[in-house]
Design goal:
Chain A is an alpha/beta fold and about 375 residues long. In chain A, about 50% of the residues lie in helices and about 15% in strands. Chain A has a domain at about 5-150: Rossmann fold, CATH 3.40.50.11890. Chain B has 2 domains: about 10-190, Rossmann fold; about 190-420, Rossmann fold, CATH 3.40.50. Chain B has helices spanning about 5-10, 15-35, 50-55, 65-75, 75-85, 95-105, 130-145, 160-180, 190-210, 220-225, 230-235, 240-255, 280-290, 300, 320-325, 335-350, 365-370, 370-380, 400-420; strands spanning about 40-45, 60, 120-125, 145-150, 265-270, 290-295, 355-360, 385-390. Classes of the chains: A alpha/beta (about 375), B alpha/beta (about 425).
Chain lengths: ~375, ~425
């Protein structure tokens, strides 16, 4: 996928881009205010080096942060008209000012919108009022910076679009689970969706879903492949996805932050953005980065195993992602109690270049599941 | 070394040093004893305002981070880390967390304090780091212990009114939770007294740190690192006030008597990050051999100040809960780059710094990620040479002394070069 050209062509259409830090920014709100949100993850194939990022971040910053910084500071990053971030993790929260320094060195600047999303459970602390106020502040900042006005009608329209997009994502995912579409292809579609308008993403997914259930132009996972659940922040790099599918593993369940966790839930009512986002965040698919969702995660994983009939669980560990790594030992134990073998893989910034070792481990895991 | 010379170079244990050992021993023994007798036990993150617990008659608290630092200082850090790693926890996780998990899951074995008594409630705080919430969640899942998350917004600027109100409301929620769980009533008078004590103790702390401004400095940063400990275990107590007063008095007295930790001090350095607990004596001695003294640290001068400040933010006797909410962000980790730079600039000017040592700490991303840009600003805007070294605050396995000292010595050479080229 040529993301560079993809984004350039988007820019040529006119319109303004807001680069959103991962993981779960208020996309509908930006869209309703005439901005095209681009979630800045999955940039591994887009930024060829991390030379610029290396001038600002130590080696123990995760690849998501490194790629994000590299992209924003690169010439490609000039496509953006603003940046949005929230307190997603300890590393990301430090980045806005680092980016400011990096941009400043090159005589550039970008408006940065920051928001604190409450991380305490609602049953413990009355967080709704605080989040309401934060959403209203964000709306005012966007209005002031971009000279646009918030419109409830446009917001409802944007929510409807995102609901449709998320529903199509789920439909595609279910085809992956059935083996009708490869996980590799699905992941490419999901990644492209980050760098396109929601309208185009919807159209492209509709086109794919119109294809014959067993598409002709794509390698489809054989039916005897062992069903697994894949879990982590990002999907593995393309080479490793190929290795995974070549090893005879079928992704029957998805717990990836940039995939299922992102599109699982859309609130019903969209009359008020404050109420909408309180609902959106506090009923979100559990994620280790949403600190209040920890209690729900185990049950969600257990349900996912039961619902998908998965026989194995693959952790795609993002090197240095502490939020994920604190939960893995407990999850492994729970899964073991359910007789679900696990395969923990750790992916760091350069690991996609050494796929052989991973492929061997995946093959062994697959053999074990199928034996 | 003759006694007289030992005294002159500060190598003998001070009264405050002796008293510190006693306080720490007593604090941990009291904690175990009270827990055994049925006290309600709370485990807290380092920046949870412990004065809140003084408002209850029989609530005691433990600080796993402080215990982990002590374990690292006593040389059992790697042993406890390995236990956690053996239980599946990644070696990339914070070494405090690994030490604590290793200790807890091995029933306190090998701990210098026999571990910590099991908690009835966990109180974490995400403004220092969200990692801490994940760490306490491990116990929440394993033991079913309720977990209260203090959700405190990161501060890129000085605290906003809305954030202040939000923090305040959570303190009230926390008090209500403890009342409900422990069956004890919160006593506002006892609580106010504890806040008064902390305020007074911090005044004495700042007085102690001022000794760094003297030439040669009346203290090393290593003294201040170890003396932070009772602020974590005895917060809100009268004993803490008395101890910090003794510390400040003794340090001033030593200056008056011409006793300095590095008498031939040639290089005055500032440290940025958590203390390297496993290296305090070794690093201190080796630096002294180079006539270098680290006299200040962002880790210690933040105590008693507001975000981005250096001076004391004194308690004025007003609303004690409000004071705690306003000072909730005192530690460095919740500060944005601009605020950190601002307070560092003040520190450099106030105590007279020749060079800055940025300790890039794998175990503390919140503290470390942004140091590269602060370093650039310090060298460019303040014209102060600086160096970055690799450390891990509690896991000595990730520390290489020669590599660190190679860089520090390069910094000292750079300071010399600048001095030699300075205009008369």
């Amino acid at each position: 996928m040529d993301l560079d050209n993809k984004m350039k062509s988007l820019k040529d259409k006119g319109g303004r881009f807001i680069g959103c830090f991962p993981l779960y920014p208020p996309l509908e709100l930006f869209h309703s205010m005439g901005l095209t949100p681009v979630v800045l993850w999955g940039l591994r194939d887009f930024v060829k080096t991390s030379a610029r990022a290396d001038r600002h971040l130590q080696s123990y910053a995760c690849s998501v942060a490194r790629h994000l910084v590299e992209f924003v500071l690169s010439d490609q990053g000039r496509i953006m008209d603003g940046l949005f971030m929230y307190n997603a993790c300890d590393t990301l929260r430090n980045l806005p000012e680092i980016l400011h320094c990096g941009l400043d060195e090159n005589g550039r600047s970008l408006p940065v919108f920051r928001m604190h999303i409450p991380m305490a459970p609602q049953e413990q602390t009355r967080t709704s009022g605080y989040l309401n106020a934060k959403i209203l502040s964000l709306i005012m900042e966007l209005e002031e910076t971009f000279g646009v006005l918030f419109s409830p009608e446009r917001f409802r329209h944007s929510v409807a679009l995102y609901r449709e997009m998320r529903s199509l994502c789920k439909e595609l995912e279910s085809r992956v689970a059935r083996g009708a579409i490869s996980y590799g292809r699905y992941s490419r579609i999901m990644q492209e969706g980050c760098f396109t308008t929601v309208e185009d993403h919807i159209e492209s997914m509709k086109d794919i879903l119109k294809e014959e259930p067993l598409c002709r132009n794509d390698s489809v996972v054989p039916s005897h492949a062992a069903p697994i659940i894949i879990s982590g922040i990002l999907p593995p790099p393309p080479k490793l996805i190929d290795a995974l599918e070549d090893a005879g593993l079928r992704v029957a369940g998805n717990d990836i932050a940039s995939q299922r966790r992102s599109y699982d839930y859309t609130p019903e009512t969209a009359d008020n953005p404050c109420i909408y986002y309180v609902d959106f965040y506090f009923n979100h698919f559990p994620c280790p980065t949403l600190l209040y969702s920890a209690n729900k995660r185990i049950a969600t994983i257990k349900n996912l195993v039961a619902r998908t009939g998965a026989r194995g669980f693959v952790f795609i560990g993002e090197k240095f992602c502490e939020d994920e790594y604190f939960e893995i030992p407990y999850l492994e134990r729970i899964l073991k109690e359910m007789s679900i073998p696990t395969l923990p893989l750790e992916i760091s910034i350069e690991d996609d270049k050494n796929s052989t070792a991973y492929a061997t481990r995946m093959e062994a895991f697959s053999e074990m599941l199928r034996s | 070394m003759p006694e007289e010379q030992k005294a002159k170079t500060g190598h003998t244990k001070t009264q405050a040093g002796k008293r510190l050992s006693k306080i720490m021993f007593n604090d941990y023994m009291r904690l175990h004893q009270k827990a055994k007798e049925g006290a309600f036990v709370v485990w807290i993150a380092i920046v949870v305002p412990a004065e809140l617990f003084s408002g209850f008659e029989n609530v005691v608290y433990a600080v796993p981070e402080s215990h982990a630092a002590m374990s690292a200082g006593k040389g059992v850090g790697p042993l406890q880390c390995e236990k956690a790693e053996g239980n599946g926890f990644s070696p990339d996780l914070c070494s405090y967390a690994r030490i604590d998990l290793g200790t807890a899951f091995d029933g306190g074995k090998d701990s210098p304090t026999f571990g910590l008594p099991k908690p009835h409630l966990l109180v974490s705080d995400n403004n220092n780091c969200s990692l801490l919430v994940k760490w306490f969640d491990v116990y929440h899942r394993e033991w079913g212990t309720p977990h209260f998350i203090l959700d405190v917004p990161f501060c890129y600027e000085q605290q906003k009114d809305r954030d202040f109100d939000y923090i305040l409301s959570q303190y009230r929620d926390l008090i209500a939770v403890i009342e409900r769980m422990s069956g004890q009533k919160f006593d506002a008078r006892r609580f106010r007294e504890a806040v008064c004590n902390s305020g007074e103790a911090l005044t004495q702390w700042k007085r102690f740190l001022k000794a760094a401004a003297h030439r040669p400095s009346g203290l090393t940063v290593f003294d201040s690192f170890v003396q932070m400990a009772p602020f974590l275990t005895s917060r809100g107590s009268r004993e803490l006030v008395d101890h910090y007063r003794l510390l400040a008095d003794e340090t001033e007295d030593n200056i008056a008597r011409g006793i300095f930790p590095v008498p031939n001090e040639k290089y005055r350095l500032l440290w940025d990050n958590i203390a390297p607990w496993h290296q305090l004596s070794k690093m201190s001695a080796r630096l002294a051999g180079l006539n270098a003294n680290i006299i200040a640290a962002s880790y210690t001068y933040c105590m008693g100040s507001l975000e981005g400040e250096f001076d004391l933010y004194a308690y004025d006797g007003g609303d004690p809960l409000g004071y705690l909410a306003r000072t909730q962000n005192f530690s460095v980790c919740p500060h944005g780059l601009e605020l950190r730079y601002r307070s560092m600039q003040r520190a450099i000017e106030e105590v007279g710094i020749d060079g800055v040592v940025f300790a890039s700490n794998r175990s503390c991303k919140v503290y470390s990620i942004m140091q590269m840009d602060i370093l650039k600003r310090v060298t460019r805007e303040l014209n102060i040479p600086a160096v970055m070294i690799d450390v891990d605050h509690a896991d000595v396995r990730k520390y290489t002394e020669e590599s660190v000292f190679g860089r520090i010595e390069a910094l000292l050479e750079l300071i010399d070069v600048r001095r030699n080229h300075a205009l008369p």
